[in-house]
Amino acid sequence: MLYILSAAVGYILxxxxxxxxxxxxxxxxxxxxxxxxNVGAMNAFEITNSKSLxxxxxxxxxxxxxxxxxxxxLIFHLNFILPSIALLFAVVGHCYSPWISFKGGRGLAxxxxxxxxxxxxxxxxxxxxxxxxxxxxxxxxxxxxxxxxFSLILIFSFSSFFFRFTFPRPDSLQTFNMFAxxxxxxxxxxxxxxxxSLITQNKVYSTKD
Length: 209
What we know:
By secondary structure, the protein is mostly helical. It has one domain. The chain contains ten helices and no strands. It has helices at about 1-15, 20-25, 40-50, 50-75, 80-95, 110-120, 120-135, 140-155, 160-165, 175-209. Helix 1 packs parallel to helix 5, helix 5 (about 80-95) packs parallel to helix 10 (about 175-209) and helix 6 (about 110-120) crosses helix 7 (about 120-135). It is globular. It starts with a helix and ends with a helix.
């Protein structure tokens, strides 16, 4: 029953379509039909060319993940599985919101907000890999994918290290690995389509050259 409650709290909070609502209100733009169609901060920024609006949406999306984790910790104290379930479903809710025909964002901001409480080291790792990738490739989607893939590899390679810096402490390494890999895999799935589009575009450009 508590697992269902955690999942419901996370999903309800995560499914709030921040970018869709704010762009409709502020700019009369349907973000699901504009730009990439991604309901997240990056598409909002690209559509409006407004850094402040993009940052605001990122922070609201991150807050959804943070609140999901914080509420479960506040209620159930030193328990890892319940806030981790809440965060996992907050990411799912953000990526597949029932309020906008199960469209959504790519889950990075929402995952970041919750992981700042549960496993800040994982956030630091992802951002570090992303920064290095972006300096080399100068492409956000590729950097997102590389940071996610390498984070997943490093988590499984050094899970005991990450385990020590997770709070509340998971009951086992397997529990932590399952939680972290589930979130990263959802993020990866949401990047398949934009990555495929990017590869197709590069092939077209190469053919023209």
